[in-house]
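Below sits the subject:

***
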Amino acid sequence: MGKRQPTKKQAQKKQAQKKGRPQAKRTDWAEITMEIWLGLFVAFYLLFPGGKGYRAISAAKTWSFYGLMALLLGLGIWYFVRDLRNKTLRPLTAPQIAALGFLVCTLVSAALSAYPDKAWYNPSAHEAALTVSLYVLLFLIVSRWGRATERLFRVLCWSLGAFCLLCLLQAFGENPLGLYPGDMNYYDGYNVKYPGGYAGTIGNVDFVSAFLALVTPMLLLRTLGQKPKQAWPCWVLAAICFGLAVWIRVLCGLVGLALGAVICLAVLCRDRDRKWILLGIGALALAGLALLWAVDLPVKFLHELHELLHGRPDDTFGTGRFYIWRQMLEQIPSQLFFGVGPDAARFSGLEPFIRYEDGVEVARATITDAHCYPLHILYCQGLPALLSWLALVGMTLFRWFKARTDPAVRPLGGGLVCFLCAMSFCPSSIIIMPFFWLTMALIEAAAKRDKGQVTADK
């Protein structure tokens, strides 16, 4: 006799039991691989200085970035093919379209540049068209398949701990990793024995200052709502980062932290308090401007603000930034739409910057950057590229505002705001700009995941 067939009622009961049975969770290797890459990028790219010290650190970071991006491009192709086969490929978001627009404008600028042998790639201009293209691809891939997880935040904290330890040793006159030439140390810089100031595994103190403006608010905002027992390691690390920003005495990072803190306060406060906080900020700003207008305080940058309020600008203001900005603004109208080419400012015929002390020339340098990132884009890549970049940044900040209560998005947005304020006075570099694009990508990834309702995954 054949096997007795179950009745319809029995079949339905068995199916119900099967549905109620816990299923083994399927391992998502694509997600695991992306998290490994993100952790590797944060730890390795931040801490690896190369083997030739500060004089070759830009080249070391460049090739490290290119190598890591080769791995990411391979992952991106894998993810794309997988989604295409599974019919889960999602359309591009508005920020991703803006990033592609910025990429197209950059490539057009390079193609039309008067310096074609320099605008695509060259060993001295590390942010030519090839590097900018990789920035955009970094944003597109991570924003589509990346995640801001708790594990990634821990990798950042441990990496920052190692970075801060190295800087603290340098502050005590040591030369760990042999990054300074010979038997020199941090205090031999600033034209004492060799030009420029360098610290940590980043190098130029301007870049270090801007990077600290990015990570310090991340550490603090990540702990909102946590108990002191959980939050104190981040508080200690944030205090050390802020102390380092003060120690290296570069204003771009401190200004970025100050302005960013004001913006974060206005955005992250309770809705019913926002009006009064904005009124308070406005009143304090007006009172500060009135004081600066009336009193010439004996501090260099405050004296410069006093002179500006009285309509007396000078090329020496901002440690020569006004001199750089004036030259670039004079030339922009003749190359408004396509610029001089990506990172081609150093080849565009700008007069060198000369620094004087007591009427004596102490430094002369070729102008390679605007020391103001939006102006740098406008001068090098043109107005359409700047508008695309502003659209991308604006939409990313709007994502942050909408998801500001999310524990994964809140610290990323706070860091991004402070970094943008710092980059208004800091040169751009392949050493720090990948962290800027990575931060924007993780905000976009978190804001779009589960329709914007995201939790920080363990």
In short: The first strand starts at residue 198 and ends at 199.
